[in-house]
Write a structure and sequence with these properties.
Blueprint: H1 15-22, H2 26-34, H3 41-54, H4 60-67, E1 72-78, H5 83-98, E2 102-108, H6 114-124, E3 129-132, H7 139-148, E4 152-155, E5 165-166, H8 170-183, E6 188-194, H9 201-218, E7 221-230, H10 234-246, E8 253-256, H11 259-271, E9 281-286, E10 299-302, H12 305-319, E11 334-336
Parallel strand pairs: 1-2, 1-3, 3-4, 4-5, 6-7, 6-8, 8-9, 9-10
Antiparallel strand pairs: 10-11
Helix pairs in contact: 1-2, 1-3, 2-3, 5-12, 6-7, 8-9, 10-11
Length: 348
């Protein structure tokens, strides 16, 4: 006859308590929590049921001493007001959780001070690795990471810089947008762009340079009077398109740095009784969740933001010696052709 298990009402449940309830060894419980792929599904389910029933929480300090690992990975990102960075973090966390790691997140101001303080705090907590966004040009960051020798990866950075730079060829992305407009017959365009000197300066600058180079190669003129540099947001996009329309330029298409700016520009066109696509073509970047459902659906370049988070997690786990399937860290974008870009019809 099996002895019934009774948890203590005065002490937190222990690993042994979980093992007793699940009728397995403490080693099996430990493996089920840290390396679940090593345990059968039936045993793993039994252990997790016991964990949930008892409200068991692993002793992180003891585990860290025993393994010389905290099973925690830190991520320091810029404060985000759009869904882009949150998708990146979701992808990263999903990959880490599958291997039993916890993500410690800090969303800092882009002032160079709180960024570095956040990184220093992460290292003080004993994280096993660091994921960074927006630190490409920081000498302080390079110095502290070289001294502590903590595995780290730069998210949304130029992958040509090396293996720990996970990102996209932004110059190529800008070229894709211009090539699509060229195929549709557009020869005079404008841009509504986020500040190139802002916290996303590297990505924005490279994408804009690719756009300019492609325009020069294909004989497309970017009209100065139809170029607006502003912050990212719906309101900014609406104001920018109004300013361009008021200047009465000859542009037939507008390239927006983000779907947020594009949607604002589309709203501005609607308010002036103009139709995006018919009266003025619009193309942008990101492919946010709403982009396919606005009226008319937005032509945009899909950026694999969540997958970028997956690959960053994969890279860091591989650096930490985890058994990972073979993978590459190159990411491709995809043009999503919808209704806001139409062929230019010669009035003659």
């Amino acid at each position: 006859m099996k002895k019934s298990f009774q948890a203590s009402a005065t002490h937190p449940p222990s690993l042994a308590d979980v093992a007793a309830m699940a009728q397995v060894s403490t080693g099996t419980v430990s493996r089920a929590l840290s390396r679940p792929e090593m345990i059968s599904e039936e045993t793993r389910n039994r252990v997790m049921q016991a964990v949930n029933t008892l409200g068991y929480v692993a002793n992180g300090a003891a585990r860290t001493l025993a393994m010389r690992r905290s099973k925690t990975i830190g991520a320091v990102v810029l404060k985000f007001g759009s869904s882009n960075f949150s998708q990146l973090v979701e992808g990263l966390e999903s990959m880490l959780t599958n291997k039993g790691y916890t993500l410690l997140l800090s969303a800092s101001e882009a002032d160079g001070i709180t960024e570095f303080s956040a990184l220093r705090a992460m290292l003080a907590r004993g994280v096993d690795a660091i994921a960074l966004l927006g630190f490409e040009d920081s000498p302080e960051t390079k110095d502290i990471l070289s001294r502590y020798r903590v595995p780290h990866a730069h998210m949304w950075s130029d992958p040509r810089h090396g293996g720990n730079f996970i990102g996209l060829d932004e110059a190529k992305n800008g070229r894709i947008a211009i090539e699509h407009l060229s195929e549709l017959g557009h020869r005079k365009i404008g841009v509504i762009w986020g500040y190139i000197g802002g916290p996303t300066r590297f990505r924005s600058r490279m994408r804009f340079e690719g756009l300019e180079d492609a325009a020069n190669d294909l004989g497309i003129e970017i009209l100065p009077k139809a170029c607006i540099y502003t912050e990212h947001g719906f309101e900014q996009g609406r104001k920018a398109i109004n300013e361009i329309l008021d200047r009465q330029t000859e542009v037939t298409a507008i390239v927006c740095a983000s779907d947020y700016l594009a949607l604002g520009a589309m709203n501005g066109l609607h308010l002036r009784n103009k139709c995006p696509g018919k009266d003025l073509s619009i193309i942008s970047f990101n492919d946010n969740d709403f982009s396919a459902y606005v009226h008319p659906p937005l032509t945009t370049i899909h950026l694999p933001i969540r997958e970028m988070g997956f690959k960053t997690g994969h890279y860091l786990l591989k650096c930490l010696g985890e058994e990972m399937t073979a993978d590459t860290y190159s990411l491709d974008v995809e043009l999503r052709v919808r209704a806001t870009c139409r062929p230019l019809i010669d009035p003659e």
